[in-house]
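User: Could you walk me through two proteins back to back? I'd like the raw sequence and the C-alpha cells for each, with a short line separating them so I can tell where one ends and the next begins.

Assistant: Of course. Protein one, sequence then structure:
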Amino acid sequence: MSALGKIAAGQFERVIAPRLGAAREEVLVGPRAGQDSAIVRLGAGRVMAVTTDPLSVVPALGFEASARLSCHLIASDLWTTAIAPAWASITFNLPPQLTDAEFEEYWRGMSDEWAKLGVAVVTGHTGRYEGCDYSIVGAGTLMGVGDESAYLTPAMAAPGDRVIVTKGCAVEATAIAGWLFPKRLGERLGEAGLARARAMLAQVSVVADCRAAVRAGVREKGVTALHDATEGGVLGGLLELARACGHDLAVERARIPLAPEARAACEVFGTDPYWTLSEGALIVTARPERAAAVLAALADAGIAAAEVGEVVPGAGALRLAEPDGTTTVLAEPRPDPYWPAYGRAV
C-alpha cells in the first residue's frame, strides 16, 4: 500500500514534473519540490500568485473550526510568496453522511474566515458523491496579485542567509491531539497544559507570521524566502527549502523550539515531533544583516521565533547538528507519520 500524505519528492520528479501540459512563457514559477505557489507574469510589472490545497473536516474540531483551519492552510501557502490572497475557487466533494446543516455550518465558517482574510470566493463546485469521506472533502485555490519585483520563492534563499523558525514543532498535530483525545493528553499535561495544547489551534496559520516578517523588507533588503512547515514537519520543511534553493541548510536541532505540549502530544500520537504536521511554523531565510530586524518584527507581532542556523553552499541537503555533537546529513525527507497515526487514533 502506498504511503499516506503527500507523494515522495522522487515520485513527483518522475511522474508529475515532466508532464505539465503546455509550456507558457508567462509562468515564472511552476510546480516544483518545496514550492507551494506558482507565479505567473501578468505584464506591467505585476504577477499573480496561485496555490491550491485540500479542504478538510476534522470531526473532533467541529465544522466551523475545521473550515477556519482549511482557509488558513491555503492562505498560508499563498502568503509565503509575500503576496496577499484576493480570490478563491472552491470545490466540495462531500461525503453522503454530511448533513445539510453540517455543511451549512462549515460553509458559514469558511465564508466568515475568507472575509477576515480579504478573500472573495469567485467560482467553485459543490456535490455529494459515493466514495468520499472525512477528512478531505474538496480543494480550494487562492489567487493574489503583486509586484514582480517583490514576490518571494524558496529558490531565492542564498548562502549566508540566516534561518529562522517561528512557533516550533508539531503545532497543528498538537492542536488536533488536544481535541481528538483530551483525556489521554490531559493525563500527561494536566488541565492547564491541555488548555494550552487546544489553544494552539489558533496558531495553525502563518498568515500573521508572513505579514510581520516581510515588514523588515524582502530580497536583498530583508527576507529572501518563506516556507511553511506542513506535512513532514519542521525538518521536512527545512529539507524542502534546501532542495528548492539548491544550497544546504546548517541547522542546530537544539535551537528548534519544541513546546512541552507538542512533545507530549506526539508521544500520545506515536509520532516524531520534528517530522510531523507543523502548519503554523514558518521557516524564514533572511540576509544576515537583516535577521535581527525580522526577529524584532515577529516579536512586535507577538510571534515567538528563533534563529536556528544558516544557508551554506551545498547541493540541497539539511545538515542537522545534534545535541551530542554529531551532525546528521539529510538528503531525503521521511514520510510524515501523522496520517497513519491519525487513522489509528480515529
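----
Protein two, same layout:
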Amino acid sequence: MNSRHYRPSTDPMFLFIQEMKLRNLSRKTIECYRRYVDDCIRFASKSARGITGPDIRAYLSWLVENGKSGSTLNTAYSALQYYFERILHRKFFASIPRSKEPKKLPSVLSLGEVARLVSTTLNPKHRCIIQLLYGTGMRVGELVRLRMNQIDFDRNCIHIQRSKGAKDRVVMLPQSLRETLLNQLRLKQPTDFLFTNGRGGRLSETSIQKIVREGTIRAGITKPITPHTLRHSFATHLLESGTDIRYIQELLGHARIETTQIYTHVTAKAARTIVSPLDASMAG
C-alpha cells in the first residue's frame, strides 16, 4: 500500500469495529456489540450522529418491555456506551442508569448427580466431554477450542489459551482421563482439536450443549443443567473439599475474587455443619 494515498475511513461503525479489534475483544463480543448498535440506530430511525440521550433511554426501555434480562440490558448498555462515547464522543450516559441484575445463585449438581451423569453417558467421546467440563472447570468455548498440544502430560496440566478477556491460564489434568487423552495423542496431530465433528472441524458449542442436555435426561436429573453448570459444580465441590478460594479463582480464570465468592453462597458444607440456633435452643 502506498501510504501517501491512504485515507483512513471516517465511517463510525468501521472505526468502532477497528477499535474493538485493536483492544483484542473476542469475535463474539465484537459481533454482539455491533448488533446492539445497529439495532438502536434502526429503532431510533436516525443517523448515528443524530441520536440523543432520550433515544438511548427509549431503546433500553423497549428492551425491558420486550422481556430482556438485566444481563442483556447491561450488555446493550456497554455496547452503546462504547460506541457513542469512544467513537462519537457523546457524553450522555452519565444520566442513564444501568440495569440492576438480580443476584441468582447458580445451579449446582451434587457429587452423586455428577457420578450418575457420567455413568449413564455410554458414548466415550460424550463421556470425556462431560468429565473434562466438570473435572477442569473449563468454559464450553474453551473446550471446543482445545488442541492436543495444550495438554501437558509431563506436568499433568492443561493450558487454556486466549480465554475470556484474552487471558491464558492453567488447569489440572484429571488423572482419571490421562489414558483416554494419551490415546487421543497417539491418534491425532499436535495442532488437532481434541474434539471434532464428522467433517474434521472442531465440535460446536451447540453440540456440547445438546450432549449435556441429553445426558441429564438419561441420568434422571430434573434441575436445569447446561455445560456451565458443570463449571459451577467444579468450583463448589472444590470449595466444599477445603480448597482455598484464591486457587479456585485462578483455576476458573476470574479477574476478581468477588466473582468467585458467589460459590461461598452455594456450598452445602456450611449448611450441614453450622448448627441452627433453633436446634441449639431445643438441645438446651
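The beta strands are 151-152, 157-160, 169-172.

Let me know if you want the two compared in more detail.
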